[in-house]
């Protein structure tokens, strides 16, 4: 995934989020629940209850951007235990978006075999 910014940090919000929330609602979660600066150059990753959708919120110095991904048949492998916020590396974010378990590094789905 190519983002329009180079984030200084990537934070995964472990708790599920009501996906009716958009930029304003997710910004409030970052500021009030996580006690973080939503205007930093960090990415904030959220997941819905069914674990088939992700939203990534970030500030790009001119405004907020909200990135959205929906899986058609599978679910994201989302951490259930641990800290409310997990700091991810860029590689871990790529793994998550590619269908891998960022904790156990297990594939969520299998790619078609090459001939």
Provide structural commentary:
This protein has 115 residues and is an alpha+beta fold. The chain has one domain (10-97). The chain is built from two helices and five strands, in the order E-H-E-E-E-E-H. The chain has helices spanning 23-33, 90-97; strands at 10-13, 43-47, 53-59, 64-70, 85-88. The chain has a five-stranded mixed β-sheet. A hairpin with a 5-residue loop joins strand 2 (43-47) and strand 3. The radius of gyration is 14 Å and the shape is globular. The protein starts with 9 loop residues before the first strand and ends in an 18-residue tail after the last helix. The model is unreliable at 106-115 (pLDDT under 50).
Structure, briefly:
17% of the residues lie in helices and 23% in strands. The chain is of the alpha+beta class.
Give the topology, please.
Blueprint: E1 10-13, H1 23-33, E2 43-47, E3 53-59, E4 64-70, E5 85-88, H2 90-97
Parallel strand pairs: 1-2
Antiparallel strand pairs: 1-5, 2-3, 3-4
């Amino acid at each position: 995934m190519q983002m329009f910014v180079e984030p200084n940090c990537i934070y995964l919000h472990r708790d599920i989020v009501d996906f009716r929330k958009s930029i304003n609602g997710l910004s409030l979660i970052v500021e009030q629940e996580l006690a973080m600066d939503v205007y930093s150059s960090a990415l904030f990753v959220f997941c819905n209850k069914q674990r088939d959708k992700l939203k990534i919120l970030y500030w790009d110095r001119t405004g907020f951007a909200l990135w959205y991904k929906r899986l058609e048949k599978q679910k994201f492998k989302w951490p259930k235990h641990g800290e409310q916020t997990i700091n991810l590396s860029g590689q871990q974010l790529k793994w998550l978006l590619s269908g891998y378990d960022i904790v156990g590094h297990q594939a969520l789905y299998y790619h078609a075999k090459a001939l």
